[in-house]
Amino acid sequence: MAAQAAESVLVFGGSGQLGSEVVKAVAAKGDKVTVFVRPTSKLDLLEGVKVDRIDGDVMKEADVAAAFKKGKFTVVVDALANDRGGPANFYEMSEVHISKAVKSAGVKQLILHSSVGAGDSRSIYPQDRLADMVAVLDSKGLGEKAAVGSGVNYTIIRNAALREAPGPEQAKIYEDHTKFGAVSRKGLGRLTAECVGNPACNNKIYHAVDDTIPLRAR
Ligand SMILES: NC(=O)c1ccc[n+]([C@@H]2O[C@H](COP(=O)([O-])OP(=O)(O)OC[C@H]3O[C@@H](n4cnc5c(N)ncnc54)[C@H](OP(=O)(O)O)[C@@H]3O)[C@@H](O)[C@H]2O)c1
After folding, report:
1. How far is the CA of 1 from the centre of ligand 1 (A)?
2. pLDDT class for 204, splitting at 50, 70, 90?
3. Residue 117 CB less than 6 A away from ligand 1
4. Is residue 61 left, alpha or beta, with left meaning phi > 0 and alpha meaning psi from -120 to 50?
5. Are 9 and 76 in contact (CB under 8 A)?
6. Is the CB of 159 under 6 A from ligand 1?
7. Mean pLDDT calculated for residue range 143-164
8. What ligand 1 atom has the least distance to the C-alpha of 91?
9. How confident is the model over 66-73, as a mean pLDDT?
10. Ligand 1 mean position to 56 CA, how many Å?
């Protein structure tokens, strides 16, 4: 079988705890990785990993548009998280900026990390935590909408809780939007790498769960 051509992957949030696991897994598979990070960002979690870097603020549409002029990317991954004190519409606006840029840049796949509780999964979110999380989940839902409307193949991977696995991670993706459970960042990194450039993941919304991770009572 012919080897799959290496992808050129731009990872937003690549310096973060989830993003760095994504970067490591994607780079290990042989794809070329570029991270979009703020000028102040430290790449400590990526020590020893070969990545290119583009500086910018995802809340500035012009910074995001400029990133796509600095390289030719075939796949984009959004693993961003809002800072404490960041705007309430962070997840919506960051994904709106990314979604606007990908189509004209010729990107073939956009992978967005989102949360269970966004979009059509609201009803399975623990009701006792909803009041605290509703603004974030609403913003993530609007971010999902932007990705779906981007005009490129989208893959949305939702998580409900991020926890370390007690042993080797066994994360899986489910098309069942009632599937609820914890998953590790490492597991999400591997699942993302498996979806990069994989047509089977096109235009899908998944829930990622590792059933080996105990979940506190809902
Ligand atoms: N369900 C759960 O239990 C749970 C728990 C935690 C997180 N999460 C979710 O998991 C996802 C990833 O979280 P994480 O733990 O990886 O977060 P994290 O470690 O805080 O990483 C956040 C990333 O976003 C980047 N970022 C933030 N604002 C930016 C901006 N304006 N411009 C450019 N980059 C920006 C950060 O870059 P810098 O290096 O510049 O800071 C960093 O790379 C998020 O969707 C989060 O909501 C879920």
Report:
1. 38
2. very high
3. no
4. alpha
5. yes
6. yes
7. 98
8. 45
9. 97
10. 15
CB count within 10 Å of CB 130 equals 12
Instruction: Tell whether ligand 1 has an atom less than 6 A from the beta carbon of residue 212.
Output: no
Give the per-residue pLDDT at 161: 95
If one residue of 158, 162, 191, 192 were mutated to test the ligand 1 pocket, choosing by the most ligand atoms within 8 A of its CB, it would be 162
In the predicted model, what is the mean pLDDT of the chain?
Answer: 95
Phi, psi of 83 (to 5 degrees): -75, 155
Burial call 196-206: b when 16+ CB within 10 Å, e when fewer: bbeeebeeebb
Distance 2 CA to ligand 1 centre (A): 36
- 109, 152 contact by CB (below 8 A): yes
Instruction: Answer yes or no: is the C-beta of 57 below 6 A from any ligand 1 atom.
Output: yes
As a whole number of Å, the end-to-end CA separation of the chain is 46
- Which of the four pLDDT bands, split at 50, 70 and 90, describes residue 5? low
CATH ID of 8-209, from 3.40.50.2300, 3.40.50.720, 3.40.1800.10, 2.130.10.120: 3.40.50.720
Question: pLDDT tier at 2 (50, 70, 90 boundaries)?
Answer: very low
